[in-house]
Amino acid sequence: MSFLRRWLGLSRRAQHGAEAKAAAGDIRASPDFSKKRQALETLARAFGYDAGKVTLSPQTKTFDYLGQNFRSEGQSFPDGNIEIYYDPQMSEARLGCCLAHELQHVRYFTVRDAYRAEQPDGPLHRRFAKYQPEALAAQRGVSNYSNEHWDAWKGDAPPKLFSFELEQGESEPINETVAEVAKALYNWGPDVRINPLWKELHDAINEEYVALQQ
Ligand SMILES: [Zn+2]
Question: From ligand 1's centre to the CA of 179, what distance in Å?
Fold first, then answer.
C-alpha cells in the first residue's frame, strides 16, 4: 500500500492505457504467464498462505517519484490480497522475494490492526514498547529500497510503529523495512547478516501474527 513500490532494476517502461489493456489479454494467454502464475501459487502454499489470495496481474503498474517513472513489482492490501505484477524478466527467485516482501506487509497490517484495537496498556503495546520512533529511526533501513523510504519520510517526527505512516509522512519506512527483512531472510536464508533490532521486530511481528491466527 505504498506509492513507493519495488523499483529493483529501475525499469522505466512507459505504457499507455489502451495499448496496455490490449496487451493484458495477450499476456494472460502466454505460456510464460501461466508458468509464472503456477509458480506463484506453489510459492504461496510453501509460505503457508492462501494461494487464492495471491494474484498474478498482467497489468503494468508504474508510479512517479522524484520526476521518474518506476515500475511496481507487487502490492499488498489490508484485506490480505496480494497482487504481483507480471514481468517476463522476473525469475522464479525474484518472484519468491517479491512474495516474501508483500506477505510481510499482510502480517504487519494484521498485527497493526490488533495493536490499534487494544488498550494502550494491552499486551501488544507492552511487547512492542521498546521499538520507539527514535530507536527505529536511528537504525534506518536494511536495504536501498527501505532507505529510500527513510529518505522520503516527510513527517515532523520519526515514524511510529503501527501508525498510518503513509498518511503521516508520505512514505512507509517501518512497514517497508520490516518487509525487506522478510525478503532478505527468504533470499539469503536465516543466517543472513541483518540489523538485529529490525530482525527482532520482524520476528516479534510474525510471532504475534501466528498467535492472532489461532
Ligand atoms: Zn513494500
Answer: 6
